[in-house]
Amino acid sequence: MSEAIESLPQDLYEGLVDYVPEDFKEFGFYASYTGEASYSMSLIANLGKGRFVNCFAGLSANDVFFLFKQLDSIISKVRFSLQSDKRFSVVMLKVTNEGKFNLDFDYTKFDEVSSIEHKKNWQEKFCGKK
Question: Is the pLDDT of residue 87 over 70?
Answer without folding.
Answer: yes
